[in-house]
Amino acid sequence: MNPKIIFLGTAGESLVYGKQIRTSGGIVLQMDDMQFLIDPGPGAITMAAHFGVNLRDNSAIFVSHNHINHCNDVNAVIGAMTYEGMDKKGVLVTNKTAYNGNEDMEPMINGFSKGLVEKSIIVEKGDKLGIGDVEVKVLDAKHDDRNTVGFRFFGSQFNVVYSADTQYFKELGEDYKGCDILILNVVHPFNEKGKQLSSDDAVKVINKVKPKVVIITHFGIKMLKADPLYEAREIQKQTGVQIIAAKD
């Protein structure tokens, strides 16, 4: 399996994924003969079929937090991966809220699906785990789901950071240093503020981290109107790092 990153969706707000202006199926990471599906939002099953991704090949499913646009299809994906439990396989790596819920939210992962995978691992920031030959470190993030986490994947050829949804905070990026590929969820364009990262925030993080390549994704409606390609070019000018605007 050649290394690949496949975006089954780049939508970052309810207006964008609700109208499917951009799709919202999550991210497929293929490395070291492993296939990881990260944050399977609405349409993950459909978009996987559309882009030729076989969900049976999933080694693990990662859920960063308990929001619909990040894990709406997690139960369907688990069912597809395991033939509804006929072939119990794969690892589910998830934050606490998506698995157990809290006082504000019911868990998106249902009880039936929990029994279909070979192993479930509930993680929080700072945890480390291994899946095959890939080491995974769980990263800090600050979002409405207070248990939101990011992930860093260490493979034999490169290592990848996925920021997940987060607002900017002073320490953001410290755990990203030394990464080859940084996937940043950049919802807002330059000169726009919100609860999640803007292009201005991305510049600050990238200048701190200096990765080899950055892929921006998870776009809000104002970001799409501003044009992610233009935003990527401007971020690149201000950082000197190659920036790619993800496409579905």
Q: What topology emerges from the helices and strands here?
A:
Blueprint: E1 4-9, H1 14-18, E2 24-31, E3 34-38, H2 44-50, E4 60-63, H3 68-71, H4 74-82, E5 91-95, H5 96-100, H6 111-114, E6 119-123, E7 128-131, E8 134-140, E9 149-154, E10 159-162, E11 181-188, E12 197-198, H7 199-209, E13 213-217, H8 221-226, H9 228-239, E14 242-245
Parallel strand pairs: 3-4, 4-5, 5-6, 10-11, 11-12, 11-13, 13-14
Antiparallel strand pairs: 1-2, 2-3, 7-8, 8-9, 9-10
Helix pairs in contact: 7-9
Amount of beta strand: 25-35%
Poorly predicted segments? none
State the order of secondary-structure elements, H for helix, E for strand: EHEEHEHHEHHEEEEEEEHEHHE
Instruction: Report Rg.
Output: 17 Å
- What does the average pLDDT come to? 96
Report how far the terminal alpha carbons are from each other: 21 Å
Anisotropy-based shape? globular
| Main sheet: strands, sense, barrel | 8 strands, mixed
Summarize this structure as a short list of keywords or feature phrases.
8-stranded mixed sheet, 248 residues, alpha/beta
Quick take:
With 248 residues, the chain is of the alpha/beta class. It is 25% helix and 29% strand. α7 packs parallel to α9.
Overview of this structure, please?
With 248 residues, the protein is of the alpha/beta class. It is built from nine helices and 14 strands. Strands 7, 8, 9, 10, 11, 12, 13 and 14 form an eight-stranded mixed beta sheet that branches. The protein has a six-stranded mixed beta sheet with strand order 1-2-3-4-5-6. α7 (199-209) packs parallel to α9.
